[in-house]
Specification:
Elements (H helix, E strand, L loop, with lengths): L2 H4 L6 E9 L5 E10 L4 E5 L6 H9 L6 E6 L2 E2 L10 E4 L11 H11 L4 H14 L15 H14 L4 E5 L7 H18 L2 E6 L2 H7 L2 E6 L2 E6 L1 H6 L4 H6 L4 E7 L3 E4 L2 E4 L7 E7 L4 E4 L3 E10 L3 E8 L2 E8 L11 E6 L4 E5 L1
Parallel strand pairs: 3-8, 3-9, 6-7, 7-8
Antiparallel strand pairs: 1-2, 1-4, 4-5, 9-10, 11-12, 11-14, 12-13, 14-20, 15-19, 16-17, 16-19, 17-18
Helix pairs in contact: 3-4, 3-5, 4-5
Length: about 350
């Protein structure tokens, strides 16, 4: 399955100084600049109220920007209504018509576009084949599982051959195991079709799993933009470090080759000058050691493939996820020593 066969031409998206103000006191999106390449999947990630969904709705034409510009393939669509933008959105609620069967739901956009009956039939069949639901073409949507309904919503979006595909928290109504499976299906389909995609979620694991690049948003602004690995291993701020995965924050110093926490010192390489820093320590970078940072076990939990521990130290609380350790028999109050793998440590200016 490729872009040419499916008739989908990926487009670039450019947001230039985009602002959305709902009132004098309510600034939802604050001067956002973003360039999305054709065929790229970019995720807008952040907590509730950070401006990610408002930004997506402005791209879709469902919200009008207060100022700034939106360009699709170089065409300024800022003031165009939604139906003239050649973009489509898959909503959190799916927005399917319960009184219609699968065929009629997927055909809806094609009929609005006044396609003839043969083109409608061909478009629906092709879209359902893309999402693997051809055999359910005549099924009532209220007889489908949540995952199947999500794929019907995706097929309806793809049937009109949009230049840009938008997702607004599409997996939030699914259970954890189904979310994992459907997100992989969405990513595989997006890569097969090569369609430009903007995806909104508050789930950092979801964003890490499917994105080419992630836009971390905070209070209406872009906090950091980068690939999943870059954001995880080199966060630009405490907010990003705390939001992308789990992190421990400890205060220490750096002499250019070693990090110092009291009597505990370990080698570290980072292009920053010597000085006092806040250490970002990922939970999987924490190990038990014969010598190292003294710690006291506060609690632990056995999760099968990993043990999770919470420790108290002179430098603050430490959370650790130790894979393959089995049941160590440690109890609350036990004294241990910890060490950190340098690859899981990043220094931030205090």
């Amino acid at each position: 399955m490729n872009v040419i066969e499916q008739g989908i031409t990926p487009a670039s998206v450019s947001l230039q100084a985009l602002v959305k103000r709902f009132s004098k006191e309510s600034l939802a999106v604050d001067s956002v600049d973003l360039e999305i390449e054709p065929g790229e999947l970019v995720t807008l990630l952040g907590p509730s109220g950070c401006g990610k969904t408002t930004t997506l709705r402005m791209i879709a034409g469902l919200e009008r920007s207060t100022s700034g510009s939106i360009l699709i393939d170089g065409e300024d669509v800022t003031r165009l209504p939604a139906y003239l933008r050649d973009v489509t959105m898959v909503f959190q609620s799916y927005a399917l018509f319960p009184h219609m069967n699968v065929f009629e739901n997927v055909a809806y956009g094609l009929r609005v576009a006044r396609k003839n009956a043969d083109d409608v039939r061909a478009g629906v069949e092709a879209a359902l084949e893309m999402v693997g639901l051809s055999e359910l073409i005549n099924r009532k949507v209220n007889a489908l599982s949540g995952g199947q309904q999500q794929r019907v919503a995706l097929a309806r979006a793809l049937a009109i051959r949009p230049r840009v595909l938008l997702f607004d928290e599409p997996l939030s109504n699914l259970d954890a195991k189904l979310r994992r499976r459907v997100r992989e299906e969405i990513r595989q389909l997006q890569q097969d079709l090569g369609i430009t995609t903007v995806y909104v979620t508050h789930d950092q694991e979801e964003a890490l799993a499917i994105s080419d690049r992630i836009v971390v948003m905070n209070a209406g602004r872009i906090e950091q933009l980068g690939g999943p690995e870059e954001l995880y291993t080199a966060p630009a701020s405490r907010f990003v470090a705390d939001f992308i995965g789990s992190a421990n924050f400890l205060r220490g110093s750096y002499d250019g080759s070693h990090v110092q926490l009291g009597s505990y010192s370990f080698p570290h390489e980072q292009d920053v000058p010597p000085g006092d820093y806040e250490l970002v320590v990922r939970p999987e970078a924490v190990e038990f050691a014969e010598e190292g940072l003294p710690a006291v076990v506060r609690s632990n939990a056995y999760l099968g493939p990993a043990n999770e521990y919470w420790f108290d130290t002179d430098f603050g609380e430490i959370f650790a996820s130790l894979s393959g350790e089995g049941r160590t028999g440690l109890d609350r109050g036990d004294r241990v020593h910890l060490r950190f793998r340098p690859a899981g440590v990043f220094l931030l200016r205090r």
